[in-house]
Amino acid sequence: MTLKKLIELRHELHRHPELSGKERLTSKTLHSFLSELKPDSLTGNLGGHGIVAVFSGKAPGKTVLLRCEMDALPVSENTELPYRSLHQGVSHKCGHDGHMAILCGVASSLSDSRPATGTVVLLFQPSEETGTGAGSTIHDLRWSPDMCFALHNLPGFPVASVIVRPGTFSSASAGLVVRLTGFSSHAAEPSKGLSPAKAVAALIYYFESIQGNREGVFATVVYVNMGRNAFGTSPGNADILVTLRAPTDIELGTLSDSVVKRIKNIAHSEGLRYSVSWTDVFPAAVNSDLSAAIVAQSAEYLGLECIEPGNPFPWSEDFGHFTGRYSGALFGLGAGLNTASLHTPDYDFPDELIHPGVDLYMEVIEKALES
Protein backbone atom coordinates (compact mmCIF):
# COMPACT_ATOMS: atom_id res chain seq x y z
CA MET A 1 0.00 0.00 0.00
CA THR A 2 1.29 3.46 -0.84
CA LEU A 3 2.00 6.17 1.69
CA LYS A 4 -0.43 8.35 -0.25
CA LYS A 5 -3.35 6.05 0.66
CA LEU A 6 -2.41 6.13 4.34
CA ILE A 7 -2.26 9.92 4.27
CA GLU A 8 -5.65 10.02 2.54
CA LEU A 9 -7.02 7.74 5.27
CA ARG A 10 -5.58 10.00 7.96
CA HIS A 11 -7.18 13.05 6.37
CA GLU A 12 -10.53 11.29 6.10
CA LEU A 13 -10.40 10.35 9.79
CA HIS A 14 -9.41 13.94 10.59
CA ARG A 15 -12.47 15.32 8.77
CA HIS A 16 -14.82 13.17 10.83
CA PRO A 17 -13.61 13.20 14.45
CA GLU A 18 -15.72 11.56 17.12
CA LEU A 19 -15.62 11.91 20.89
CA SER A 20 -14.96 9.09 23.34
CA GLY A 21 -17.65 6.42 23.21
CA LYS A 22 -19.09 7.77 19.95
CA GLU A 23 -16.55 6.41 17.44
CA ARG A 24 -19.16 4.75 15.18
CA LEU A 25 -18.14 6.28 11.84
CA THR A 26 -14.44 5.95 12.73
CA SER A 27 -14.99 2.26 13.41
CA LYS A 28 -16.89 1.82 10.14
CA THR A 29 -14.13 3.57 8.16
CA LEU A 30 -11.41 1.45 9.76
CA HIS A 31 -13.35 -1.79 9.31
CA SER A 32 -13.80 -1.08 5.61
CA PHE A 33 -10.10 -0.26 5.18
CA LEU A 34 -8.87 -3.28 7.14
CA SER A 35 -11.23 -5.80 5.56
CA GLU A 36 -9.52 -5.23 2.19
CA LEU A 37 -6.24 -6.37 3.76
CA LYS A 38 -7.74 -9.78 4.62
CA PRO A 39 -6.51 -10.25 8.18
CA ASP A 40 -6.97 -13.72 9.67
CA SER A 41 -9.70 -12.25 11.84
CA LEU A 42 -11.36 -8.85 12.10
CA THR A 43 -13.50 -8.24 15.17
CA GLY A 44 -15.54 -5.21 16.14
CA ASN A 45 -17.37 -3.82 19.17
CA LEU A 46 -14.52 -4.22 21.64
CA GLY A 47 -14.86 -1.87 24.59
CA GLY A 48 -17.56 -0.10 22.63
CA HIS A 49 -16.53 0.67 19.04
CA GLY A 50 -13.06 -0.88 19.14
CA ILE A 51 -11.66 -3.10 16.38
CA VAL A 52 -9.07 -5.87 16.40
CA ALA A 53 -7.29 -7.15 13.28
CA VAL A 54 -5.20 -10.31 13.74
CA PHE A 55 -2.38 -11.53 11.50
CA SER A 56 -0.97 -14.97 12.27
CA GLY A 57 2.29 -16.56 11.20
CA LYS A 58 2.66 -20.02 9.69
CA ALA A 59 3.97 -21.46 12.96
CA PRO A 60 2.88 -20.85 16.56
CA GLY A 61 4.81 -18.43 18.73
CA LYS A 62 4.45 -15.36 20.85
CA THR A 63 1.57 -12.91 20.63
CA VAL A 64 2.39 -9.22 20.23
CA LEU A 65 -0.28 -6.52 20.54
CA LEU A 66 -0.04 -3.01 19.10
CA ARG A 67 -2.60 -0.43 20.16
CA CYS A 68 -3.75 2.93 18.81
CA GLU A 69 -6.54 5.25 19.93
CA MET A 70 -9.68 6.21 17.98
CA ASP A 71 -11.27 9.15 19.83
CA ALA A 72 -10.99 12.89 19.28
CA LEU A 73 -11.22 15.87 21.64
CA PRO A 74 -13.90 18.49 22.41
CA VAL A 75 -11.64 21.20 20.94
CA SER A 76 -12.50 23.52 18.04
CA GLU A 77 -10.02 23.43 15.18
CA ASN A 78 -8.19 26.66 14.36
CA THR A 79 -6.71 25.79 10.97
CA GLU A 80 -7.54 26.29 7.30
CA LEU A 81 -6.53 22.76 6.32
CA PRO A 82 -8.38 21.31 3.31
CA TYR A 83 -9.23 18.32 5.47
CA ARG A 84 -10.16 20.29 8.61
CA SER A 85 -12.78 18.92 10.98
CA LEU A 86 -16.35 19.04 9.69
CA HIS A 87 -17.74 18.86 13.23
CA GLN A 88 -17.83 22.10 15.20
CA GLY A 89 -16.17 21.79 18.59
CA VAL A 90 -14.66 18.35 17.92
CA SER A 91 -11.26 17.65 16.37
CA HIS A 92 -8.26 15.32 16.38
CA LYS A 93 -5.95 17.51 18.44
CA CYS A 94 -4.08 14.63 20.07
CA GLY A 95 -3.02 12.97 16.81
CA HIS A 96 -5.08 9.81 17.16
CA ASP A 97 -5.93 10.10 13.46
CA GLY A 98 -2.22 9.71 12.71
CA HIS A 99 -1.86 6.82 15.16
CA MET A 100 -4.69 4.99 13.40
CA ALA A 101 -3.10 5.62 9.98
CA ILE A 102 0.21 4.20 11.24
CA LEU A 103 -1.44 1.04 12.55
CA CYS A 104 -3.32 0.64 9.26
CA GLY A 105 0.06 0.87 7.53
CA VAL A 106 1.30 -1.93 9.78
CA ALA A 107 -1.77 -3.96 8.84
CA SER A 108 -0.96 -3.42 5.17
CA SER A 109 2.64 -4.56 5.67
CA LEU A 110 1.53 -7.65 7.58
CA SER A 111 -1.01 -8.43 4.88
CA ASP A 112 1.81 -8.45 2.33
CA SER A 113 4.21 -10.40 4.55
CA ARG A 114 2.90 -12.20 7.61
CA PRO A 115 5.32 -13.06 10.43
CA ALA A 116 7.08 -16.41 10.21
CA THR A 117 5.88 -17.35 13.69
CA GLY A 118 3.51 -16.02 16.27
CA THR A 119 0.53 -13.68 16.15
CA VAL A 120 0.21 -9.93 15.79
CA VAL A 121 -2.90 -8.29 17.25
CA LEU A 122 -3.66 -4.76 16.05
CA LEU A 123 -6.06 -3.01 18.43
CA PHE A 124 -7.91 0.17 17.51
CA GLN A 125 -9.12 1.30 20.93
CA PRO A 126 -11.97 3.70 21.71
CA SER A 127 -12.32 6.14 24.61
CA GLU A 128 -8.69 6.76 25.51
CA GLU A 129 -9.25 10.40 26.40
CA THR A 130 -11.65 9.55 29.23
CA GLY A 131 -9.50 6.72 30.57
CA THR A 132 -12.28 4.14 30.17
CA GLY A 133 -11.36 2.53 26.84
CA ALA A 134 -8.37 0.40 27.78
CA GLY A 135 -10.00 -1.34 30.72
CA SER A 136 -13.22 -2.16 28.87
CA THR A 137 -11.30 -3.28 25.78
CA ILE A 138 -9.05 -5.59 27.79
CA HIS A 139 -12.21 -7.14 29.24
CA ASP A 140 -13.42 -7.94 25.70
CA LEU A 141 -10.07 -9.19 24.33
CA ARG A 142 -9.76 -12.87 23.48
CA TRP A 143 -5.96 -12.67 23.37
CA SER A 144 -3.42 -12.42 26.19
CA PRO A 145 -0.36 -10.86 24.57
CA ASP A 146 3.15 -11.74 25.61
CA MET A 147 4.12 -8.14 24.85
CA CYS A 148 2.22 -4.96 23.99
CA PHE A 149 3.28 -1.63 22.51
CA ALA A 150 1.79 1.77 21.78
CA LEU A 151 3.24 5.01 20.45
CA HIS A 152 2.23 8.61 20.89
CA ASN A 153 3.39 11.54 18.79
CA LEU A 154 5.24 14.11 20.89
CA PRO A 155 5.63 17.74 19.78
CA GLY A 156 8.80 19.35 21.10
CA PHE A 157 11.08 16.53 19.93
CA PRO A 158 12.88 16.17 16.57
CA VAL A 159 10.75 14.72 13.78
CA ALA A 160 10.71 10.90 13.85
CA SER A 161 12.93 10.71 16.91
CA VAL A 162 11.98 7.89 19.28
CA ILE A 163 11.44 8.72 22.94
CA VAL A 164 11.47 5.77 25.34
CA ARG A 165 12.57 4.89 28.84
CA PRO A 166 12.33 1.84 31.10
CA GLY A 167 10.04 2.24 34.11
CA THR A 168 7.35 4.88 34.30
CA PHE A 169 6.83 6.65 30.96
CA SER A 170 3.64 8.62 31.65
CA SER A 171 2.16 9.55 35.01
CA ALA A 172 -0.88 8.38 36.89
CA SER A 173 -3.75 10.86 37.19
CA ALA A 174 -7.31 11.15 38.41
CA GLY A 175 -10.10 13.69 38.10
CA LEU A 176 -11.52 14.80 41.46
CA VAL A 177 -14.97 16.38 41.72
CA VAL A 178 -15.58 18.29 44.95
CA ARG A 179 -19.08 19.42 45.90
CA LEU A 180 -19.55 21.91 48.77
CA THR A 181 -23.06 22.52 50.08
CA GLY A 182 -24.32 25.25 52.40
CA PHE A 183 -27.39 27.42 51.80
CA SER A 184 -28.01 30.71 50.06
CA SER A 185 -29.29 34.00 51.44
CA HIS A 186 -29.94 37.55 50.32
CA ALA A 187 -26.66 39.20 49.36
CA ALA A 188 -27.54 42.04 51.75
CA GLU A 189 -27.72 39.54 54.61
CA PRO A 190 -24.90 37.03 53.96
CA SER A 191 -24.76 36.08 57.66
CA LYS A 192 -28.17 34.45 57.30
CA GLY A 193 -26.79 32.02 54.73
CA LEU A 194 -23.88 29.60 54.61
CA SER A 195 -21.61 30.48 51.70
CA PRO A 196 -18.85 28.12 50.48
CA ALA A 197 -16.72 31.08 49.31
CA LYS A 198 -14.10 30.85 52.08
CA ALA A 199 -13.81 27.08 51.65
CA VAL A 200 -13.41 27.45 47.88
CA ALA A 201 -10.64 30.01 48.36
CA ALA A 202 -8.90 27.81 50.94
CA LEU A 203 -9.12 24.73 48.72
CA ILE A 204 -7.81 26.52 45.64
CA TYR A 205 -4.87 27.83 47.68
CA TYR A 206 -4.26 24.32 49.03
CA PHE A 207 -4.37 22.67 45.59
CA GLU A 208 -1.96 25.25 44.20
CA SER A 209 0.39 24.70 47.16
CA ILE A 210 0.80 21.03 46.19
CA GLN A 211 2.88 22.06 43.17
CA GLY A 212 6.52 21.16 43.66
CA ASN A 213 6.14 19.45 47.04
CA ARG A 214 7.42 16.24 45.46
CA GLU A 215 8.86 15.70 41.97
CA GLY A 216 6.03 15.08 39.51
CA VAL A 217 3.28 15.26 42.15
CA PHE A 218 0.83 18.12 41.63
CA ALA A 219 -2.78 19.24 41.32
CA THR A 220 -4.42 21.38 38.64
CA VAL A 221 -7.69 23.20 39.28
CA VAL A 222 -9.59 22.87 35.99
CA TYR A 223 -13.05 24.22 36.87
CA VAL A 224 -14.77 26.19 39.62
CA ASN A 225 -18.47 27.03 39.85
CA MET A 226 -20.08 28.85 42.76
CA GLY A 227 -23.49 30.46 43.09
CA ARG A 228 -25.16 32.02 40.08
CA ASN A 229 -25.21 35.22 38.05
CA ALA A 230 -27.37 37.14 40.53
CA PHE A 231 -25.97 40.07 42.53
CA GLY A 232 -28.78 39.81 45.04
CA THR A 233 -28.04 36.27 46.19
CA SER A 234 -25.23 34.93 48.32
CA PRO A 235 -24.10 31.48 47.03
CA GLY A 236 -25.11 28.27 48.75
CA ASN A 237 -23.02 25.66 46.95
CA ALA A 238 -19.92 25.22 44.83
CA ASP A 239 -18.17 22.70 42.63
CA ILE A 240 -14.42 22.36 42.14
CA LEU A 241 -12.85 20.01 39.59
CA VAL A 242 -9.20 19.13 40.07
CA THR A 243 -6.77 16.84 38.25
CA LEU A 244 -4.28 15.07 40.51
CA ARG A 245 -1.04 13.70 39.04
CA ALA A 246 1.88 11.60 40.29
CA PRO A 247 4.62 9.46 38.71
CA THR A 248 3.32 6.22 40.26
CA ASP A 249 -0.02 4.73 41.25
CA ILE A 250 1.12 4.49 44.87
CA GLU A 251 2.05 8.17 45.00
CA LEU A 252 -1.28 9.10 43.41
CA GLY A 253 -3.08 7.06 46.05
CA THR A 254 -1.17 8.81 48.83
CA LEU A 255 -1.92 12.21 47.30
CA SER A 256 -5.61 11.36 46.88
CA ASP A 257 -5.94 10.31 50.53
CA SER A 258 -4.31 13.50 51.83
CA VAL A 259 -6.42 15.68 49.53
CA VAL A 260 -9.68 14.11 50.70
CA LYS A 261 -8.67 14.62 54.34
CA ARG A 262 -7.95 18.30 53.69
CA ILE A 263 -11.29 18.76 51.90
CA LYS A 264 -13.07 17.21 54.90
CA ASN A 265 -11.26 19.47 57.38
CA ILE A 266 -11.90 22.67 55.43
CA ALA A 267 -15.56 21.84 54.80
CA HIS A 268 -16.17 21.00 58.46
CA SER A 269 -14.41 24.16 59.63
CA GLU A 270 -16.88 26.19 57.55
CA GLY A 271 -19.90 24.11 58.58
CA LEU A 272 -20.45 22.85 55.03
CA ARG A 273 -21.50 19.45 53.78
CA TYR A 274 -19.20 18.00 51.15
CA SER A 275 -18.88 15.10 48.72
CA VAL A 276 -16.05 13.84 46.53
CA SER A 277 -16.15 11.62 43.45
CA TRP A 278 -13.57 10.42 40.97
CA THR A 279 -13.47 10.25 37.17
CA ASP A 280 -10.96 10.00 34.30
CA VAL A 281 -8.64 7.72 36.28
CA PHE A 282 -5.41 6.81 34.47
CA PRO A 283 -2.80 4.43 35.92
CA ALA A 284 0.85 5.16 35.26
CA ALA A 285 2.23 3.54 32.09
CA VAL A 286 5.21 1.53 33.32
CA ASN A 287 7.50 0.09 30.65
CA SER A 288 9.22 -3.24 31.19
CA ASP A 289 12.99 -3.20 30.69
CA LEU A 290 12.80 -5.71 27.83
CA SER A 291 10.01 -3.91 25.96
CA ALA A 292 11.72 -0.54 26.27
CA ALA A 293 14.98 -2.10 25.05
CA ILE A 294 13.22 -3.58 22.02
CA VAL A 295 11.88 -0.15 21.06
CA ALA A 296 15.30 1.47 21.52
CA GLN A 297 17.06 -1.28 19.54
CA SER A 298 14.50 -1.00 16.73
CA ALA A 299 15.02 2.75 16.50
CA GLU A 300 18.78 2.28 16.45
CA TYR A 301 18.53 -0.35 13.72
CA LEU A 302 16.50 2.03 11.56
CA GLY A 303 18.88 4.92 12.17
CA LEU A 304 16.31 6.94 14.11
CA GLU A 305 17.46 9.20 16.92
CA CYS A 306 16.59 7.62 20.27
CA ILE A 307 16.03 9.83 23.31
CA GLU A 308 15.68 8.59 26.90
CA PRO A 309 13.98 11.25 29.05
CA GLY A 310 15.28 11.60 32.58
CA ASN A 311 11.83 11.72 34.20
CA PRO A 312 8.36 10.36 33.43
CA PHE A 313 6.07 12.63 31.44
CA PRO A 314 3.43 14.40 33.58
CA TRP A 315 0.57 13.63 31.18
CA SER A 316 -1.39 10.38 31.33
CA GLU A 317 -2.36 7.66 28.86
CA ASP A 318 -4.69 4.77 29.54
CA PHE A 319 -2.21 2.33 27.99
CA GLY A 320 -1.12 2.00 31.63
CA HIS A 321 -3.95 -0.53 31.96
CA PHE A 322 -2.10 -2.71 29.44
CA THR A 323 1.39 -2.30 30.90
CA GLY A 324 -0.07 -3.02 34.34
CA ARG A 325 -1.25 -6.40 33.09
CA TYR A 326 1.21 -7.35 30.33
CA SER A 327 4.86 -6.72 29.60
CA GLY A 328 4.94 -3.73 27.30
CA ALA A 329 6.05 -0.22 26.45
CA LEU A 330 4.51 3.13 25.63
CA PHE A 331 6.90 5.31 23.67
CA GLY A 332 6.99 8.61 21.81
CA LEU A 333 7.52 9.55 18.19
CA GLY A 334 8.86 13.09 17.83
CA ALA A 335 6.46 15.41 15.97
CA GLY A 336 8.84 18.34 15.51
CA LEU A 337 10.49 20.97 17.66
CA ASN A 338 8.19 23.78 16.52
CA THR A 339 4.95 21.81 16.15
CA ALA A 340 1.92 23.14 18.05
CA SER A 341 1.28 21.44 21.38
CA LEU A 342 -1.17 18.58 21.78
CA HIS A 343 -4.78 19.48 22.71
CA THR A 344 -4.43 22.98 21.22
CA PRO A 345 -6.61 24.36 18.36
CA ASP A 346 -3.62 24.73 15.99
CA TYR A 347 -2.25 21.20 16.30
CA ASP A 348 -2.22 18.81 13.32
CA PHE A 349 -0.52 15.41 13.18
CA PRO A 350 2.50 15.54 10.83
CA ASP A 351 1.96 13.20 7.86
CA GLU A 352 5.73 12.63 7.63
CA LEU A 353 5.53 10.51 10.79
CA ILE A 354 3.42 7.79 9.17
CA HIS A 355 6.21 6.08 7.22
CA PRO A 356 8.78 5.96 10.06
CA GLY A 357 6.00 4.96 12.46
CA VAL A 358 5.11 1.95 10.31
CA ASP A 359 8.76 0.96 9.86
CA LEU A 360 9.43 1.25 13.58
CA TYR A 361 6.43 -0.89 14.51
CA MET A 362 7.41 -3.56 11.99
CA GLU A 363 10.89 -3.74 13.49
CA VAL A 364 9.43 -3.87 17.00
CA ILE A 365 7.17 -6.75 15.95
CA GLU A 366 10.07 -8.74 14.55
CA LYS A 367 12.24 -8.25 17.64
CA ALA A 368 9.38 -8.92 20.06
CA LEU A 369 8.37 -12.16 18.34
CA GLU A 370 11.98 -13.31 18.46
CA SER A 371 12.64 -12.23 22.05
CATH fold name of the largest domain: Aminopeptidase
Q: Report the top-level CATH class of the largest domain.
A: Alpha Beta
Supply the helix-strand structural class: alpha/beta
Tally the beta strands. Answer: 16
Overview of the molecule:
This protein is α/β, with parallel strands linked by helices and 371 residues long. The chain folds into 2 domains: 3-168 and 285-370, Zn peptidases (Aminopeptidase, 3-Layer(aba) Sandwich), CATH 3.40.630; 172-281, 2-Layer Sandwich (Alpha-Beta Plaits), CATH 3.30.70. The protein contains 9 helices and 16 strands. The protein has helices spanning 3-15, 24-35, 96-112, 133-140, 197-209, 249-269, 289-301, 320-323, 354-370; strands spanning 41-46, 50-56, 59-69, 117-125, 147-154, 162-163, 167-170, 172-181, 185-186, 218-226, 233-234, 237-246, 273-282, 285-287, 306-307, 328-334. Strands 1-2-4-3-5-16-6-15 form an 8-stranded mixed β-sheet. It is elongated. The mean pLDDT is 96.
Highlighted features:
8-stranded mixed beta sheet, about 375 residues, elongated, Aminopeptidase, 16 strands, Alpha-Beta Plaits, 9 helices, 2 domains, alpha/beta, single chain, 4-stranded antiparallel beta sheet
What is this structure's SSE topology?
Layout: H1 3-15, H2 24-35, E1 41-46, E2 50-56, E3 59-69, H3 96-112, E4 117-125, H4 133-140, E5 147-154, E6 162-163, E7 167-170, E8 172-181, E9 185-186, H5 197-209, E10 218-226, E11 233-234, E12 237-246, H6 249-269, E13 273-282, E14 285-287, H7 289-301, E15 306-307, H8 320-323, E16 328-334, H9 354-370
Parallel strand pairs: 3-4, 3-5, 5-16, 6-15
Antiparallel strand pairs: 1-2, 2-4, 6-16, 7-14, 8-12, 8-13, 9-11, 10-12
Helix pairs in contact: 1-3, 3-9, 5-6, 7-9
